Amino acid sequence: MTDSGQSNHLVPQTLWDRLYLGWFLVCFFMIWVGTWAVNEPVAVLGMPLVYAWCSGWGIVWLIGCLCFGLKIEQARELSRGD
Amino acid sequence: MESWHYTVTIVVLYALLILWVGTGRWTRGGRVAMDDYFKVGKGFGFIVLYLGIAGGFHTAFAIPGSMGFYHAHGVAFAANVLWTVFTPLAVIYFVGSRITCLGRKFNYITPADMLADYFGEGKFRAFVAIYMLSCCVPLMTANVTGPAILLSSGTEGHIPYNWALGIMGVMVMIYVTSSGIRGVTWTTVAQAVWMFVAVWAAAFWCLSLIDGNLLTLFNTIRDTEPALLTLPGPRGLATPQWWATFPVFGIALYWAILPRGFMFFYSAKDVKTTRKIGLTVGFYLMALYLPAMVIGFTAFYFFPELTGSAADNSFPLLLATYAPAWFAGLIVAGGLAAGMSSLDADTNANSAMLTKDVYAAFIKKDGSDRHYISVGRIFIIFLVGGTVIAASNNWGLVVLMVGVTAAMITQLLPAVLAVTIPMGGLRFTKAGISTGMVIGLAAAMAAVLGGSTFAPFGFEFTVPLLWPASLARFDAAFLGLAVNVPITLIVSRFTAPPDPEAVARIRAALDEEFRPNRT
Fold first, then answer.
1. Residue B489 within a domain
2. Interface ipTM
3. Which of B143, B149, B286, B437 could hold B84 in an S-S bridge, CB 3.0 to 4.6 Å?
């Protein structure tokens, strides 16, 4: 059996889907890779830089995806006529 | 009254609260049915399920594990930011919502229901159920160990470690047998709130110990152990290989597909509820870990001499030495909340799998729902009893156990993704998935256990290092998956496909929900 006739749900469909994915990847890489660029024993408001960097990007990541996710939800409801 | 009496009093009040919440009339379903005991037939709304998932996802690692981790490895702990955000925004939002969709549409109760519906019934169902159950046993054992130590040390040893285990076990047995997933979820709501308050209260208390001066704390750490402030940490844990693979493959990708995750997703009122939880639960998960830095470093500030496994006890020691007894009681109860909120959810999910996927599928096929629920309750008692007995032995393998669970569950990922996410031309078969899981598991276990020495029944042996040293630095779950995926795809190419009708039915359900405008 092949699924060539089936849809591919991995591909983002709408602009908001793409923005969600893009934001997700940018913030993810900022922590995943970017942390190594700020790996110094420096204090930011009394907190270690690595901690402040990762937590800060984590919050930005969550807020951005929440905004785009709510837009996706809104668009879905509109397309269903809810 | 002696100080430990206050601690015990608060823990008793906490226990009574949990038993009341876990057995009250709000935990009663309208009917006697498996699909309204192991999961909630009608479905939970956003707030209850949000807190249920939030509490259920944080284990004993939240209290006291995270504080001990900071004491030992410093800011390497920040790796946890990755999974506390990645899991909700990717796995719950994208995969969890699809599990909710299929679970509600086809009334699945267990994870194997979904996989067997797609790949085909038979022994595969039992294979998946027993595989998942054996994944969870190490995690359940690890989950009760930390809180029991905390309770024992918080009462100055007046409640011995084994009694602490027994108390947790009996409480979980009472409300899970009484109310199933409803008891699990409602108690987890209370536990999520309690542990959140406890962690943040502990952080502010620690700040008061250092006169609110974070910079003094930072400078002290920099003068005594500067390696705590950068990667890879003083013990060299957070290497680039570890950082690149542990948070994503070792936690994020498996955490939400634990059996307890399936039960929560099946118990959502609708797909929108799960998606909204995916978008927002990361705020709770991450916020619970933010104060761990202050707590862990304050414990280091006062007890820098603790090394090795003693670092895990730095926070309980800080509490025992400096905290007022009532406050220690609040935190100890928070630790119990963290451990029990995962143990109960795991117990319910494992009991469901044993009852539906093994007992009802192979032993007694024509029983009534009332009979199966009674059998499920017996499994709950055995599962909790077994966990308590296993944890009462000092295996010294707690960290290893969590790694074993992660490595095992991650091997299920190709199967879960194959069912929930149509991927164009990619082909997955039952033989391919099973072969990939088994070989991937062997590869992951070789990485987790390689070099470890065991002495069962006095016979000492060391597991050989099968992975080259350069690869062994990567997380075991990642290594297993790197072997699993190509084998799954290759074997799937040459073996019998799943029933096209079942595949089409499942794909149609997903298309209808997630691709409504597809032409």
1. no
2. 0.93
3. B286
